[in-house]
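User: Sequence recovery, please. Input:
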């Protein structure tokens, strides 16, 4: 996510070591098309300084990468973004942001290993780029929620219209967010955790 007017106010960063109270760690993957805000979300919510693998965009990407709506974007993720957030004193989330360009999707296989769930970050200006992303998650059986990222020039649609356009069942949460805001990004992650907990409860033996 790279547009004028972004006013990220990073929260306090902690040391890289895990809190001594941590008892469990969960891997979460943030996916989406090119330029939808994955790196921004990881950076805004991570309590440690995030690891990024951004490289300067070059002429080689012209005609290959769809940068509609991201004309001012000068760098792109080529491997992954990594961050960490403590949900409780005992539970820690490891966040992995995937590269958005389809030519880098082969890297997703390793990033999805061991992932408990995923966040699909969506740009309403380019809904079509989310179809293949969601399809890959469904093929792998990875539970996910959809977060509609707010862009100044992005059209707004009722949630149910988005659900119909994405052909998603009613049980999959769709929420609006601003990936630049730490509280908003944290709300997305909490929605995913509640969804995963609900799934676990319905699958638990009685």
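Assistant: Recovered sequence (206 residues):
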């Amino acid at each position: 996510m790279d547009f004028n007017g972004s006013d990220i106010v990073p929260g306090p960063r902690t040391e890289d070591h895990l809190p001594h109270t941590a008892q469990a760690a969960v891997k979460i993957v943030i996916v989406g098309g090119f330029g939808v805000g994955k790196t921004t979300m990881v950076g805004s919510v991570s309590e440690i300084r995030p690891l990024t693998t951004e490289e300067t965009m070059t002429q080689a990407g012209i005609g290959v990468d769809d940068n509609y709506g991201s004309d001012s974007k000068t760098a792109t993720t080529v491997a992954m973004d990594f961050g960490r957030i403590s949900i409780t004193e005992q539970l820690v989330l490891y966040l992995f942001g995937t590269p958005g360009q389809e030519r880098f999707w082969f890297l997703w296989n390793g990033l999805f290993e061991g992932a408990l769930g995923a966040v699909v970050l969506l740009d309403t200006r380019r809904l079509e780029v989310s179809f293949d992303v969601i399809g890959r998650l469904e093929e792998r059986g990875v539970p996910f929620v959809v977060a509609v990222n707010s862009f100044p020039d992005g059209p707004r649609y009722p949630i149910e219209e988005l659900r119909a356009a994405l052909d998603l069942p009613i049980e999959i949460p769709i929420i609006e967010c601003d990936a630049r805001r730490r509280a908003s990004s944290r709300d997305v992650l909490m929605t995913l955790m509640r969804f995963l907990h609900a799934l676990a409860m319905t699958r638990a033996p009685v």
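Confidence is low (pLDDT under 50) at residues 1-12, 56-65.
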